[in-house]
Structure formats: structure tokens, C-alpha cells
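I am still getting used to C-alpha cells and would like to learn alongside you. To get us started, please write out a protein record for me. Start from the sequence, derive the C-alpha cells from it, and show both lines together. Once you have written the record down, we can walk along the chain together:
***
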Amino acid sequence: MNWIPQIIRILIMLIGGYLSYQLLVWFPILQGGPQGSVTNMVYLVIAGVLTGYVVSKRAEAPLSRWVEQWIASLVNLSPKKVMAATVGTILSLLLSVLLNNLLSNAPFYHWGFSLLTTTILAIFFIFFSLKNSDFFGSFISPASTPKTTRIPNPKILDTNVIIDGRIIELLQSQFLEGTLVVPLFVLRELQFLADHADPSKRARGKRGLEVLEQLHNITTLKVLDWDDSNIKAVDDKLVRLAQELSAKLLSNDFNLGRVAKLQDVDVLNLNALATAIKARYNAGDVIQVSITKEGQQAGQGVAYLEDGTMVVVEDGAAYKGQMKNVVVLSNIQTNVGRMIFARTETN
């Protein structure tokens, strides 16, 4: 958009010339005599235009970035939201005209009152129209935008998170709620992989289909017949669908997650979750614990970390009531919590 800086520069120069001309109105003394008034006006306008040119050199870069961001946000708006905002603006302007005509003869009436009422009406009707933008989708040709249905608490599944398969354990542990949504174009991608000549791709595709069968048996799984012929890349379709449904996106694709977050789409990454809940201490780590009692096996001592994790220490009974450095041997995760097995550190 190389034309944006030039347009901004011209607008700033015109504003400078106009403000300089207004100086003659605000300060009549600058007009001089009858013969010099035109000359002074020309000089002031030229000075204002040149001042605007100087100012534009500093202002056009940040203003250009702001305008480009604004244009990009408008381009990403769905047609039904644009339609809804337009209808809301029209209604607010019509009601503002009627209201101002009724109140124009009131003694307290002022042009500022008209501006205030128009602004309040515009905010109300535009907000109301955007909240009910699905209603305005019926005025748009079905070919221009795909139809979406209301789904309670939707979570859209990406191809890689389906093939990963860990989502099954996550659902069985009841840490994930809502309706799982599989777009039809994702299902087609899995079918394409399952029929691929490459054995590795074929195995990935078959695994993805098997995971979907298991998900269908344990939770609500909705296959959504949604597509947008104007968008070619699958990742872009996922982001657009998430925006349409106000849904969260389940994906292990780090780059897709970054792109989605830049477009205000929430992303649930199973890899990030696994990192967050991984074991705090790994085999070989040395920790200092206070051995409080004897264990069930002969010679064992038992200690507890600050978070309540039990540490079973081999040959730790002899150090009961003492602080001791121990070396972590292994971690075991059970339904009741994590347990650490360790041995006393030898010098």
C-alpha cells in the first residue's frame, strides 16, 4: 500500500492550508488593507501548506501503519458483520434525525446535544447489530460466505491433534469440555492421507480416523460441513471457522497457534499442556528433604515436598528426623497424586 503515505501527506498539507486560511477569519488584523488582503491570504495558505508538508514527514509513517492495520482489520471482517454494522449505522442516523427534529425547538437544544444523541444511538445499534449478526447473514448470498450454526462451547480439532491421539486421555480425565468440532475439510484431509501411496502418510491417516471413531464413542463429536472457496490453505480455513463460531482451536502446530492468536483466536496446544504438567523433578536431580517417618519396606524413609508429594527414600530410615540430600530415581503418577522414589546421596 505505497499510496497511503502520499494520501496522508496531501491531506496534512490541505489541512495546513485550511487552518492558515482560518487564521484570517479568527484574526482579521492579518488581512491588512483592502489591497493586501488577497496577497496575505495567498501567503498564509502557502505557508500553511508548506508547514503541513514538514509535519507530514514525521507523521506519515505512524499514521500509515495505523491506516494499514485498520484496513487489514476491515478486510478480515466477515460480510455478515459488515452488513450488521451498516444496518446499525443507518438505523442510528434515521432515529437521530427524527429525535433532533423533535427537540430542535427546545430552549436547551444545542448542536452538541445532536452529536451526543447520534453517538449514543450509533454505539447502541451497531453493538446490537453485531451481537445478532447471524440474522443479517440471510441477506448475503450463500456463495459469498459459508453458513455456520450455533454450537455450544465449540472446540475445533486440527488434523495433527487428531493424529496425536492424546486428546482421548484428556477427555477421559474430564479436563476438556464442550463440543468437539471436526470440519469436513479436515476429515477429507485425513481420508486423503489414509489412501496415500506413502506408507507413513497412510498410517497417519488411518490413525487419525481411528481416533475420531473413539472420540465419537466417548463424547459429542460434530462433523461440520463448512468451507470457504475463497480460502485455499487449511490453516487459514481453521482460523476463519474459529472466528465464525467464536470457538477455540485445538492444535499442536506452533506456527498455526501464533497466527491464530494474532487474529484473536484462542488456541489450546496439547504440547504446551504437557510441558506445563510435566514432572517437577526428573531422574538424577538432587533435592533436600526432611525424612519424617519410616516406610513400608525395611530401611525405607518417607519425606514430603512442600506441595505434599511423597518421597520414598531407600535406606532413609536411619535419617529419620534429619534433613538429607537425596537423588531422584523415578517419578510415578497415580490417580491420587505423584510419588517420587529416591536414594540418599553418597559423597
Summary: The chain is about 55% helix and 15% strand. Residues 3-130 form one domain. Strands lie at 154-157, 179-183, 221-224, 248-250, 267-268, 286-294, 301-304, 310-314, 323-334, 337-344. The first helix runs from residue 3 to 26.
